[in-house]
Amino acid sequence: MKTTASTAAFCLLGALFLLSLPTTLPCDAWDCDCVFKHQRSCCCVYNKLGRLSVDTFHSLDYISDSLSQLQEDIVSLTGEHYAFKASIGQPSYRCFGPFTRNVPVPYNNVTLNDGRAYNPALGIFTARFDGIYSFTFTTYSNLIAPGMRQYVQLQLMKNGEPVVGVWEDNREDSEDSSTQELLLPLERGDQVYIELVAGRYLCGDLKYNVFSGFLLYPN
């Protein structure tokens, strides 16, 4: 119904335009049937308006597709936030380790896990997007008995390969701490975790052992 009314109005305007011309028409007489058939042999006035209408439609369609793509890009950049922070949740004044093999550190006391990319049961962060990520881990060990040896070695692992680490081996300090921070390029599915090296151990107030990270920007 709306299309028919629009067409009738279009024909009326065209007829009024043709009647107002003082000279011979530059093409065949106006034919309302042209509107329905879109014939190029119809009145040149309609041909020009028809081409303009089609071009305008294609332009609007292109703009609509561009806006949809832009919206998807914005969602991919800002729609999801990936950040986590966790510490060791074991009771104070106990030791984690030593073990006969390298073991992932169980940072199971989670205080932040936006995007749910960090698994506290395994202590593993899994990248959901290709991008640049920032990671920080702090190591703290407080010896629980006189004469004990500070014997700590942790390393940040990416897909099973060490990237950076911290270590301490002395009998002079009853407590010690260190922090590492780095930017790391990751692809979707890459896994990052902290590993305690075989034979080493962490003791004391383990809640000060913290692992955190976030997506700086996607690629």
Give an account of the 3D structure:
- Residues 1-29 form the signal peptide.
- InterPro entries: C1q_dom, Cerebellin_Synaptic_Org, Tumour_necrosis_fac-like_dom.
- It is found in: Secreted.
- The protein has 219 residues and is of the alpha+beta class.
- It folds into two domains: 2-78; 83-218, Jelly Rolls, CATH 2.60.120.
- 26% of the residues lie in helices and 37% in strands.
- The protein has helices at residues 2-19, 33-37, 44-78, and strands at residues 83-87, 94-96, 103-104, 109-114, 118-119, 124-126, 131-142, 150-158, 161-170, 175-186, 191-196, 202-204, 210-218.
- The strands form three sheets. Strands 3, 5, 6, 8, 9 and 11 form a six-stranded antiparallel sheet that branches. Strands 4-1-13-7-10 form a five-stranded antiparallel sheet, with no helix packed on it. A two-stranded antiparallel sheet has the order 2-12.
- A hairpin with a 2-residue loop joins strand 8 and strand 9.
- The model is unreliable at 1-13, 15-19 and 21-25 (pLDDT under 50).
